[in-house]
Amino acid sequence: MASSQAPPPPSRTIALYQKDGTLHTHNTTISSISPLSTLAPETQALFKKSDKDADDNNNNNNTREYLVVVVSAETIFHAQGGGQPTDTGIMTISSPENENENENENAQVTEKPVFYVQSVRASPPSILHLGIFKGSPSSSSSSSSRFTPGVHVTQTIDVGPRLLHSRLHTAGHALSIAVMSLTQPSSSSSSSSSSSSSSKPAVVLPSDLKEGKASHFPSAASIEFHGLIPGTAKQAIQEAVDALIARDLAISIHFVDEAEALRRCGPVAEGVKGDVNAEGEGKGDVRLVEIEGAGAYPCGGTHVRTLKDVGRVVVKGIKRQKGVSKSHMFGIVRGLTLSMIEQGETYNA
């Protein structure tokens, strides 16, 4: 694999997973392929050391020398970001006519190359797939020489991890909605009758509670809130999220402009910019994920179709720690951690 050539100019990748998260296989074309070591330092830095470590399952001496980055015209691989992990999977040449004409003359080539996608990152306007080819390091050059711009490939994601990540991500939004539903009413709406006040939740959270960052990684799923949530609120939060999941609301995707995103999502959409990789109506569209009838969030992740597809969301605990923001001290509530339980199987999240 030649390493002296300059990297090709970036090409746009359409993120198909942002419009249809149920696509598990897809045919597309290669836009570029480059050894990781030839890319700009800031591009290499997108991939952590763990992304570059050996993968014994691929039977490769997986060193930086043999790691390559593939860019395709479209992708179903979720690029890590927004609190959601990367997708993994494979790419294979999808039809015989795309193979090199001299392949039959090469006795060493006995099967189509398989590119193992180990990590995916967005580098607008491209989406980068980091991985290595099946076989020994000596076969890597031969395999990559057949993955050339214009070649048709079939992308296949690892479905199990994708489904878990989608459930966790949707559960995070549901949990946020449940928590915010417990915030106390404003003074203008507090003058209600005694009969209506009797239906209010036993635990009422501060009205100035604000949603913060979220993690949807397995074993580290959590939502942060700026404000004080007492430990005694755990049961009330659990009941609120149980009630929301039981409604089995549909999950829908919308592409809107920034003003509409702010109108529909409120403060959580402040500063949100459109994603040039999104397959909306045009560049710069903001992608909203809506739990219909409950709330919407600007989000680039994958999700299940309805809330019941999430399974049960278990609030494992509430932790508080001090943080500093704009020289103002406030409590950050961390660790509304989820445990996904469905059909007797537990996924620690």
TrEMBL record:
The GO biological-process annotations, alphabetized, read as: tRNA aminoacylation
Cofactor or coenzyme needed: Zn(2+)
| Stored InterPro entries | Alanyl-tRNA_Editing_Enzymes, Thr/Ala-tRNA-synth_IIc_edit, Transl_B-barrel_sf, tRNA_SAD
Q: What are the start and end residues of every segment in region (Disordered)? A: 185-205
The entry lists its GO molecular-function terms as: aminoacyl-tRNA ligase activity; ATP binding
Which Pfam families does the UniProt entry name for this protein? tRNA_SAD
Please list the residue ranges annotated as the Threonyl/alanyl tRNA synthetase SAD domain: 286-323
User: Which residue ranges have biased composition labelled Low complexity?
Assistant: 186-199
Q: Which family does it belong to?
A: Belongs to the class-II aminoacyl-tRNA synthetase family. Alax-L subfamily.
What name has this protein been given in UniProt? Threonyl/alanyl tRNA synthetase SAD domain-containing protein
Q: Which organism is it from?
A: Pleomassaria siparia CBS 279.74
